[in-house]
Amino acid sequence: MAESKDAGDPPRGPLGGIARAMAFLGGVSLLVAATVTTISVVLRWTTSQPIRGDFEMVSIASGVAVFGFLGYGTLMRANILVDTFTTWLPRRVAGLFDAFWMLVWAALTLWLAERMALGAWETWANGMRTIGLLALPYWWAVAIGALAFAVTGLAALLWAGRFARGRF
């Protein structure tokens, strides 16, 4: 990965591009969920007939949205950090604590990525679909979640390295 000039800047390069693209996809997905909800509510109010399968579409779009923001949030260090116990420590020592917790976050998200990738494969192989009016296949949404967790894990590893080297 190409290092940015300022150590506090988020890393650029392929990982940054993928994280931004996933966040954009998450934003578009959230807009789709909001639009479907709005149209469905208006239709229900005016014609008593909502969009068929609106709950299925909104639940999948909302899940994709949440997953899309994880990697970018980690890359921008916009995740929740609790530093109540480390604010009094020297910056370098606090950075080592942050490196440790970023490693924990990376391990967790990379493990979830592997599990979700396996789940996406099994969902596709079994032909599983949503339970509802549309019976949509959803292996692709699980695969997007796996990719999002993988990007999040890589971003966390990148920051863990920076924290450990004191470049934050």
TrEMBL record:
InterPro entries: DctQ. It is found in: Cell inner membrane; Cell membrane. Keywords: Cell inner membrane, Cell membrane, Membrane, Transmembrane, Transmembrane helix, Transport. The chain crosses the membrane at residues 21-45, 57-75, 96-118, 138-160. It is a multi-pass membrane protein. It comes from the Bacteria. The keyword ATP-binding does not apply. Belongs to the TRAP transporter small permease family. Part of the tripartite ATP-independent periplasmic (TRAP) transport system. The complex comprises the extracytoplasmic solute receptor protein and the two transmembrane proteins. This is TRAP transporter small permease protein. It comes from Falsiroseomonas selenitidurans.
